[in-house]
């Protein structure tokens, strides 16, 4: 959901938002004898309302939506593990996860499963989370290093085996690992465990029809509140399996979804408070700048990298594509727009790397795994950088800065957001110890967003054109 609370008017029609989403869910609950509403993680982040109230607003809104069962996504960790556990206490709905453990005593942080009994049937829900949560967890110095992700197949097997004796009629995995990982997970599960359905998240995949792997139905419903996935299932309680189903993606619009005015009242309270702070105009760009994909040079990515590189006096700035959470920005830029663009505000770290180290870092960023659909991190480059990569031969045909070839022995001052510095090994296959031999990394800004805010506030009518900083052949 990513904090997608507000409806938008598109072609004179209201689309999305939690008011009409709640209206649709309530309508189905009244129309259907057996209805279960579940969410596969990432309720948080993506809106200024969520950011301003650090998820407390989201939990109150989710309480109004009243899901029957929810699993956590990686962005539920963004405000810290301790804060997430506090928010769980505020939730009036069950939150399940089976594979997030403490390393001290191997205890699970959440209830691993939830059984819903409905019309004489028992439906078992198990929550599974991606390893992508771990880099964010490391930012929490007190407890971040004391959590780990356990093998999903092992955890699912333990739970299914433990509850086979009570005649579970249908088993559903609520996963937040991504569509490709969902398929791999389904292929590894023993059919005798009785897993029937995977309802997934993380990769924001929109499916016209569920994928079937190893007899397991796999479904996702994209991202946000513009649509909701709907399964209509027939369960054979003799064989404990799905005997028939239909799947549809239901548009959340004023054509078929009544509004929930009580929920709107709660939402408008938070919206009014946030708007007072976030409605400030920062700048006007010459035109709208776009960020259509993580895995290519983008207008918005290069634009932000340039500002940080210039403001922080770096040789080059590498901005994480995934930290840019909007597909476009401008031409009018409010503080709310900048916050939604970079919701995970972070400090900036300057580090010194040799040309040879930098080359290996960039080659790792461009590895084959990036192009085969895996959920990898990618980076946007600041001005002066020129990288031409041959994907077939796995070589850099050109690697230069300001028109000069990057020299293996020369040391360059580059900037990274703290999250990516903290996880250098994961994102660049190089350790902090290797980097530190060239000079001790140091924090050059406590907030990248504040640097951008200050620069944009004093510059108007800016533009950016794709300049071929990254070319993949």
Q: What this model shows, in words?
A:
There is one protein chain. The protein has 473 residues and is an alpha/beta fold. The protein folds into two domains: 8-272, Metallo-dependent phosphatases (Purple Acid Phosphatase, chain A, domain 2), CATH 3.60.21.10; 279-472, Alpha-Beta Complex (5'-nucleotidase,  domain 2), CATH 3.90.780. The strands form nine sheets. Strands 7-8-10-11-13-12 form a six-stranded mixed sheet, with helices on one face. The chain is globular, with a radius of gyration of 23 Å. The protein starts with 7 loop residues before the first strand and ends with a strand.
Core attributes:
single chain; 473 residues; alpha/beta; Purple Acid Phosphatase, chain A, domain 2; 5'-nucleotidase,  domain 2; 2 domains; 6-stranded mixed sheet; 5-stranded mixed sheet; 28 strands; 28% strand; globular
CATH architectural designation of the largest domain:
4-Layer Sandwich
Task: Please count the beta strands (DSSP E, at least 2 residues each).
Answer: 28
CATH class assignment of the largest domain? Alpha Beta
Strand neighbour order, sheet with most strands: 7-8-10-11-13-12
Number of helices: 16
How would you describe the shape?
globular
Strand content: 25-35%
Number of domains: 2
CATH topology (fold) name of the largest domain: Purple Acid Phosphatase, chain A, domain 2
**CATH homology superfamily name of the largest domain:** Metallo-dependent phosphatases
Give the terminus-to-terminus CA distance: 35 Å
What number is the mean pLDDT?
Answer: 93
Sequence stretches where pLDDT stays below 50 over 5 or more residues: none
Helix percent band: 25-40%
Largest sheet: 6 strands, mixed
The Cα radius of gyration reads 23 Å
What structural class do helix, strand and pairing data support?
A: alpha/beta
């Amino acid at each position: 959901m990513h904090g997608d609370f507000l409806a938008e008017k598109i072609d004179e029609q209201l689309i999305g938002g939690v008011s009409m989403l709640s209206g649709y869910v309530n309508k189905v609950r009244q129309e259907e004898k057996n209805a279960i509403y579940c969410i596969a993680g990432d309720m948080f982040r993506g809106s200024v309302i969520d950011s301003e109230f650090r998820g407390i607003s989201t939990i109150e809104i989710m309480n109004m939506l009243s899901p029957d069962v929810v699993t956590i996504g990686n962005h539920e960790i963004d405000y810290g593990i301790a804060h997430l556990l506090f928010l769980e206490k505020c939730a009036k709905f069950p939150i399940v996860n089976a594979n997030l453990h403490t390393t001290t005593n191997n205890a699970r942080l959440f209830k691993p499963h939830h059984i819903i009994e409905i019309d004489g049937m028992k439906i078992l829900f198990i929550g599974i989370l991606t390893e992508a949560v771990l880099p964010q967890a490391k930012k929490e110095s007190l407890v971040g290093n004391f959590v780990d992700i356990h093998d999903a197949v092992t955890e699912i097997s333990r739970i299914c085996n433990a509850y086979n004796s009570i005649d579970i009629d249908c088993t559903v995995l609520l996963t937040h690992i991504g569509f490709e990982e969902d398929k791999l997970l389904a292929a590894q599960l023993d059919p005798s465990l009785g897993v029937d359905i995977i309802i997934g998240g993380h990769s924001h995949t929109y499916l016209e029809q569920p994928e079937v792997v190893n007899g397991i139905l796999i479904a996702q419903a994209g991202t946000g509140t513009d649509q909701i996935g709907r399964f209509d299932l027939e369960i054979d309680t003799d064989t404990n399996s799905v005997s028939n189903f239909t799947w549809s993606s239901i548009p959340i619009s004023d054509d078929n979804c009544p509004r929930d005015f009580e929920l709107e009242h709660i939402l408008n309270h938070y919206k009014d408070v946030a708007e007072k702070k976030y409605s400030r105009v920062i700048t006007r760009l010459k035109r709208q700048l776009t960020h259509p994909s993580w895995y290519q040079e983008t207008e918005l990515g290069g634009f932000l990298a340039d500002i940080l590189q210039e403001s922080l006096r770096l040789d080059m700035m590498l901005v994480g594509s995934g930290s840019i959470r909007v597909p476009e920005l401008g031409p009018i830029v409010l503080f709310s727009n900048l916050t939604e663009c970079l919701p995970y505000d972070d400090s900036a770290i300057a580090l010194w790397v040799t040309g040879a180290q930098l080359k290996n870092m960039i080659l790792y960023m461009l590895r084959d795994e990036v192009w085969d659909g895996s959920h990898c991190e990618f980076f946007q480059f600041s001005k002066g950088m020129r990288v031409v990569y041959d994907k077939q031969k796995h070589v850099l045909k050109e690697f230069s800065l300001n028109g000069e070839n990057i020299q293996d022995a020369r040391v360059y001052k580059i900037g990274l957001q703290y999250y990516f510095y903290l996880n250098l090994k994961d994102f660049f296959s190089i350790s902090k110890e290797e980097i530190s031999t060239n000079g001790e990394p140091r924090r050059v800004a406590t907030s990248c967003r504040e640097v951008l805010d200050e620069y944009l506030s004093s510059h108007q009518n800016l533009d950016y054109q794709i300049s071929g900083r990254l070319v993949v052949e």
